[in-house]
Write a structure and sequence with these properties.
This protein has 51 residues and is of the alpha+beta class. Strands 1-2 form a two-stranded antiparallel sheet. A hairpin with a 2-residue loop joins strand 1 and strand 2. It is globular, with a radius of gyration of 10 Å.
């Protein structure tokens, strides 16, 4: 099952297809991650905590 490489949370295969780089089976960051966010094609530290 696909999961977030950052926090280990479950993500759907559809989410991986849309947000993971080609050839990856897991995403680097998911909506549940409080410490990182997607920024274009890269991942960066979150500037503030998400609620």
């Amino acid at each position: 099952m696909p999961e977030c490489s950052n926090c280990g949370s479950f993500v759907t295969e559809q989410y991986v297809r849309v947000f993971a780089p080609p050839g990856y089976e897991n995403v680097r960051v998911c909506p549940g991650c409080e410490d990182k966010v997607r920024d274009g094609s890269s991942v960066r530290e979150a500037r503030s905590k998400r609620v």
